[in-house]
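User: Is it possible to get a 3D structure for a protein together with its bound compound? The compound here is magnesium ion. I've pasted both below.
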Amino acid sequence: KSGFVSIIGRPNVGKSTFLNRVIGQKIAIMSDKPQTTRNKVQGVYTTDDAQIIFIDTPGIHKPKHRLGDFMMKVATNALREVDAILFMVNVTEPRGAGDDFIIEKLKGLDTPIILVMNKIDMIHPDEIPAVIEQYKNQLDFAAYVPISALQGNNVEPLLKEIKKLL
Ligand code: GDP
Ligand code: MG
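Assistant: Yes, that's possible. Here is the predicted structure of the complex:
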């Protein structure tokens, strides 16, 4: 199995931390180089049975640097071409304008979306259902996966969920 996965989320939700954990330090540093392609490859996760190519879609998660209508359309179309989208949120903060900006961009896409609830090391497990409540009516999610990118909790099950969508 092989496919493309886009990681979307407002700044500081833990996207880079997640990539570092899954792919490793070297690639993450490489990914900081500016690239001009519309889908920039951030790293490739390879196992015996799967290859997941993580990409960043510029323009989707930067409300402060709004692109023009045309570039926004380019960014949204890029999301149609991936096999899965990881929409990463921070469970330590309520859903906010930055999250809603992304939700608007994701509406109407056919691409399966996994809600990745990051930083669960900061909350009690009992609080996770309330996080799901905040998002479940916004989009049609393929799966809800709580993780700690920092500590590595539940990252393997997330990779398993991604593989199901490839
Ligand atoms: P990005 O902007 O989405 O790429 O976010 P980063 O990966 O740069 O992370 C932003 C901050 O959140 C950093 O200080 C990380 O150490 C921290 N962080 C990321 N993931 C976790 C997590 O699972 N738990 C905790 N407690 N902190 C995290
Ligand atoms: Mg980052």
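The mean pLDDT is 86. Strands lie at 2-8, 40-46, 51-56, 84-90, 113-118, 143-147.
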